[in-house]
Write a structure and sequence with these properties.
- By secondary structure, this protein is an alpha/beta fold.
- Helices cover about 50% and strands about 10% of the residues.
């Protein structure tokens, strides 16, 4: 039975076990809609294989009391990027190590990304009810079904991690997992990369150099604006309109209205700022073009063929940013190229080609 914690006094009772355990399983329930920063609604913790703690952040409880323990102990999570950011924001925690079941699964022959219920079924042979995923976690009191759901998620993380680590070891991928986990945590703890968000705008790889410079500046401005307003970036300017502005680069407010689909609030609320950003982009060097097209597609296919036998999910090792790095003249691909196997390395050297039937020869 999980323990619901609403006050500092109730939390103090459990701080010693959190401070002395080997590692802490962590999950959160939050509402990501509309706001830039997701709204934390419930924090689930479990010290080793102890009692599940459900900490209610909407009650009069000081979450920063958890900061020292959550910073000093390895944390077990599933797809934990949002969880880590919420712990930093609400608990003043800076995790020293985060073990993510999705990343473990990517090196355990189970693919990436995988849902928690799928991993629990594959590794533990158990079912997991996810019907409360989209329920309203802001309502109080929380229902018995919500509390059961929240507790089950964190209850299964410890045995799931153990099972996944055994599979990773069986494939000989432990060193690669450690590299991937360190890299992932470093990215989560790094300052916001506003300069790189342009890469996520659909069609960014199609732009010319001057258009790419404009999109880079526009996307960076939008990210900072959304953060300052605590709203979703798309609520400031949508991706489609950002792309349009980068292509047309209007020099006056009237230029915004040349696209009949441009919402009036964009140029009314942000028009002057956007004109300033576009003018600055004219004197700014464009970021390096994204590598897309046949060479990137061939690289991903070769990675999938080569990595399958080694239990590595090429979808994780060869995401868009990693493809750019592997194909660049200045990079060697780091641990990714090694993890993807010798046939893939031979493909990069031009010693193997992709044959009909999905073979590297």
């Amino acid at each position: 039975m999980a323990c619901l914690i609403r006050t500092d006094e109730e939390l103090h009772v459990h701080l010693p076990e959190l401070a002395s355990c080997e590692r802490i399983s962590v999950d959160t329930e939050f509402h990501p809609e509309k706001a830039y920063f997701p709204k934390l609604m419930l924090l689930q913790l479990r010290a080793d294989e102890g009692e599940v703690l459900l900490v209610d952040p909407l009650g009069p409880v000081n979450l920063t009391l958890l900061g020292p323990a959550l910073s000093a102990r390895p944390l077990l999570v599933h797809g934990g990027a949002a969880d880590v950011q919420l712990l930093r924001r609400h608990c003043s925690a800076t995790p020293c190590r985060v073990v993510d079941t999705q990343i473990l699964a990517a090196f355990a022959g189970l693919g990436w990304p995988r849902r928690l219920q799928d991993l629990v079924a594959a590794v533990l042979g158990k079912g997991l009810d996810k019907q409360e995923t989209l329920s309203d976690w802001s309502r109080r009191p929380l229902s018995a079904a919500q509390l059961q759901y929240a507790g089950d998620d964190v209850l299964l993380l410890e045995p799931l991690v153990r099972g996944l680590q055994t599979r990773v070891e069986g494939f000989g991928n432990t060193a690669f997992v450690e590299e991937a986990l360190r890299e992932s945590l470093g990215a989560l703890l790094a300052p916001p990369d506003d300069a790189g968000v342009w890469r996520r705008v659909p069609g960014a790889h199609l732009l010319s150099e001057v258009e790419r410079a404009a999109l880079s500046e526009l996307a960076s401005w939008r990210e900072a604006k959304a953060r300052s307003l605590d709203c979703a970036a798309a609520h400031v300017v949508s991706d489609a309109m950002l792309f349009d502005l980068a292509r047309r680069r209007p020099e006056t407010l009237d230029g915004f209205r040349e696209n009949r689909r441009m919402p009036s609030q964009v140029w009314r609320q942000h028009g002057q700022e956007l004109l300033t950003v576009l003018a600055r982009a004219e004197a700014t060097a464009a970021p390096r073009a994204l590598r897309r097209g046949a060479d990137a597609d061939a690289l991903r296919l070769a990675a999938r063929i080569s990595a399958e036998a080694g239990g590595v999910a090429a979808e994780y090792a060869c995401r868009d940013g990693e493809v750019d790095y592997i194909l660049s003249d200045s990079g060697t691909g780091g641990w990714r190229v090694a993890a993807l196997g010798e046939p893939f390395q031979d493909f990069l050297r031009g010693k193997k080609v992709i044959m009909h039937g999905g073979r590297l020869e």
